[in-house]
Design a protein that fits this description.
Layout: H1 2-20, E1 31-33, E2 37-44, E3 51-56, E4 62-66, E5 84-90, E6 100-108, E7 113-117, E8 120-125, E9 128-135, E10 138-146, E11 160-164, E12 170-173, E13 175-182, E14 185-194, E15 200-201, E16 207-211, E17 214-218, E18 240-241, E19 278-282, E20 296-300, E21 305-313, E22 319-323, E23 331-333, E24 340-345, E25 351-355, H2 369-378, E26 388-394, H3 410-416, H4 422-434, H5 441-450, H6 456-466, H7 472-481, H8 484-493, H9 502-513, H10 518-528, H11 536-549, H12 554-562, H13 568-584, H14 587-601, H15 616-632, H16 650-653, H17 656-665, E27 671-673, E28 676-678, H18 695-709
Antiparallel strand pairs: 1-23, 2-26, 3-4, 4-5, 5-6, 7-8, 8-9, 9-10, 11-12, 13-14, 15-16, 16-17, 17-18, 19-20, 20-21, 21-22, 21-23, 24-25, 25-26, 27-28
Helix pairs in contact: 3-4, 4-6, 5-6, 6-8, 8-10, 9-11, 10-11, 10-12, 11-13, 12-14, 13-14, 15-18, 17-18
């Protein structure tokens, strides 16, 4: 009897605990949403606390990263507390609202990214990137993937995103590394640096990201096709600003870090242009109307809104973008604490919005005294320990029922490769590879041979690549009969293949060149520089012919140089010898070759390591890492569309007083880079406006920058 009483008491206590976790009433009147759509709160505090990123598992459940340690007060004190978590949020009755929270990992310090793949969870707890196996919703064996994934002291600029790419590599924003798990081992490679917070891809596998003041930046070509030569920056192939218009349309006065600057706000006190663009996603599902497929949505947490952009291709295959609306937003809130920072297309086809619901989103490293004071006045410093995840659906379309992918057969997973939902396509591809689904080889070949213009064939190709099922016979057939998109992906795979079929491939490449398709030609140029299955003279001859076709095209030069690291001198001599005076008319390629040769021969070293721990320059290194490296990069190479390089900078090489003045007072004027004046969307911050800075810190940073990046006198 006593045992029954104890059990009853336990049951009542348990039910009371569940009652405490019931979702609070969330007013929807704060939102102004595009007509025809509806927004519902899927999860809210206390079920979720300060979420910054989410992913969906095979069952369709939400996994969320919680970062309550970010700016817990106006001074930013307490960020080193181990109060971060990764939790599983489950909707057990299928009503679109989370009703169960399961902690998976806790006691984390400022976690910031996650990805469910390979039967486990990849997550970041700066500076490390970890992989942990999942056993019945509990963490299993943990493996360190990268000890320096997200280095530095500033959470606004550390690596994040963790996107499973169409090519089976995992890419990140704010990082120049990519990762892959294959044959039981983790691999890591260099890739282009893609800033800043959040990363997404379209159906063809091209990557898109942003900087704080540029809402959509995109790569015109597939990752690691054009960036294989460190001596040449792929400025025309990667990191292109797709929407020159950075205007935002808040529906209430906004409080932003530089609100004291002239023209930052309009006459009604509303932000004019992006200052913290983040969390982009390309919507690829059919729950929204057809015209929304392939649109790029971007978060603007400082203005409490979501931006919609239309992406398209021109006749040459280049991606173009423009804002969907001229005077309003897809979603806007009149609440200062609506902080959308990440977006995700769900397995049900709806758009999920990660709302950090935090009063202060500006990190202390860059917080102006103006923002600090105004935030306290408005009580924003007290808005902590909250969080929301919203779901946006189109009212007239049915919301698809989430299926458990773990229960599907390999054949059923193959069928998902043709699904209109890009999340399901990628998930099916990853699961087939992880399951070593060799039994579906014939089905994958059938899809490829049907040669459709949809995405199914691309996923089938990369599934076979992940399963090591590709050979010369398959690749040659694709190159002979495939559509251009499928051929481009095949060209990306070719350099990985060891083959002796030189005559066959040579003939195929000449046939491809005869198509006279510019986009395809650029991919051919990038591939020919690095393949090993054609005679060098044949490859160089074909590359030279293509360069003659595009005599003043910088992109063609970048493509040609991409695979020629260490071979620039030989290629330069070949062009001069074989093409003679004809090639003399094309001086552009020779200037690119010379630039790459000089870059290869020029040694760039950071001399700070030689100095004593107490040296001022060592103190400057720490400050530079915390405040400057995020934009100007640790090696001083700068970040396209965000910050100019310090290496070769006239300011850095000039008088010390001028450098100090720029750091202290900021800079908004155009910067001279490689002989060209470049204007950046966001002016450099004046550190005199940061209450944490003083002249001693300024002196230390100047000493370090001059020592590390200035040219010897």
């Amino acid at each position: 009897m006593r045992l029954h009483i104890y059990f009853l008491f336990f049951l009542v206590s348990l039910l009371s605990c569940q009652e405490d976790f019931r979702e609070p009433i969330v007013p929807m009147a704060e939102f102004k949403l595009e007509p025809g759509f509806k927004i519902n709160c899927t999860a809210a505090e206390p079920l979720v606390d300060t979420p910054v990123a989410i992913d969906f598992d095979e069952k369709g459940r939400i996994w969320a990263v919680e970062m309550p340690g970010y700016m817990p007060n106006v001074e930013g004190l307490g960020e080193d507390e181990a109060n971060g978590s990764i939790v599983i949020l489950e909707d057990r009755d299928g009503d679109g609202k989370v009703d169960l929270r399961k902690p998976f990992l806790d006691k984390l310090i400022m976690p910031r990214a996650l990805l469910l793949a390979y039967g486990g969870l990849l997550y970041c707890e700066p500076p490390k990137l970890w992989f942990v196996e999942i056993n019945n919703d509990l963490p299993g064996k943990r493996t360190l993937v990268d000890s320096s994934y997200a280095p530095g002291y500033n959470p606004e600029y550390q690596a994040n995103g963790l996107l499973y790419g169409l090519d089976n590599w995992i890419y990140s924003a704010g990082s120049d590394k990519r990762y892959r798990f294959k044959n039981g081992q983790w691999a890591m490679e260099k890739t282009a640096y893609r800033s800043q917070w959040g990363i997404t891809q379209d159906g063809h596998g091209r990557l898109f990201y942003n900087s704080n003041s540029v809402q959509i930046i995109g790569d015109q070509y597939l990752p690691n096709v054009m960036e294989n030569n460190p001596g040449i920056a792929a400025e025309h192939a990667l990191g292109q600003i797709l929407t020159e218009n950075q205007r935002v349309f808040p529906i209430h006065p906004t409080l932003v870090n530089r609100g004291y600057l002239e023209h930052e706000l309009d006459s009604l006190g509303r932000l004019r242009n992006f200052t913290s663009a983040c969390g982009p996603t390309v919507y690829m599902a059919d729950q929204f109307p057809t015209e929304f497929y392939g649109n790029a949505f971007v978060c603007a947490p400082e203005a409490n809104l979501l931006k919609r952009n239309l992406l398209s291709e021109d006749g040459q295959g280049r991606v173009l973008g423009r804002q969907a609306y001229d005077d309003h937003e897809f979603l806007a809130s009149n609440n200062d604490t609506f902080r959308p920072i990440n977006l995700k297309t769900g397995p049900d086809g709806c758009l999920y919005v990660v709302d950090m619901r935090h009063g202060i989103i500006q990190h202390k490293a860059y917080m102006s005294l103006y923002l600090k004071n105004e935030a306290v006045k408005k009580g924003l410093d007290t808005v902590i320990e909250k969080g929301r995840i919203y779901r946006i659906c189109f009212e007239k379309n049915r919301v698809g029922k989430t299926q458990d992918l773990s229960k599907l057969s390999n054949k059923e997973l193959v069928n998902l490769l043709a699904n209109k939902n890009g999340h399901l396509r990628i998930k099916a591809q990853e699961l087939l590879i992880h399951k070593n689904a060799f039994d579906i080889q014939k089905e994958l070949l059938r899809i490829i041979n049907e040669n459709t213009n949809g995405y199914e064939a691309l996923h089938a190709l990369w599934t076979m690549e992940g399963l090591n099922l590709l050979d010369d016979e398959i690749l040659i057939k694709i190159l002979k009969t495939g559509n251009n998109k499928l051929i481009e992906h095949t060209l990306k795979i070719l350099p990985q293949i060891s083959t002796q079929n030189s005559p066959v491939y040579s003939n195929i490449f000449y046939e491809l060149v005869n198509k006279k398709n510019r986009n395809l030609d650029m991919n051919i140029l990038a591939t020919l520089g690095q393949v090993g299955f054609m005679e060098e003279e044949d490859r160089y001859l074909l590359m030279g012919s293509l360069l003659m076709r595009y005599p003043v095209d910088s992109l063609a030069c970048e493509a040609a140089l991409s695979g020629l690291e260490g071979k620039e001198d030989k290629f330069q001599d070949f062009l001069s010898t074989i093409f003679g005076q004809q090639m003399d008319k094309n001086q552009l390629i020779f200037s690119y070759l010379q630039k790459s040769i000089e870059s290869r021969n020029k040694e760039k070293t950071n001399k700070i390591e030689l100095f004593d721990h107490n040296d001022m320059r060592t103190a400057g290194l720490k400050l530079y890492s915390q405040y400057c490296a995020a934009c100007h990069r640790p090696g001083g190479e700068g970040t396209p569309n965000l910050a100019p390089p310090l290496l070769g900078s006239a300011v850095v090489n000039g008088p010390q007083e001028k450098l100090a003045a720029v750091i202290w007072h900021g800079k908004s004027e155009p910067v001279l880079i490689n002989g060209n004046l470049v204007t950046f969307k966001e002016p450099m911050q004046a550190f005199k406006d940061n209450p944490a800075w003083d002249e001693k810190m300024l002196e230390a940073v100047v000493a370090y920058v001059k020592n590390a990046f200035a040219e010897p006198e």
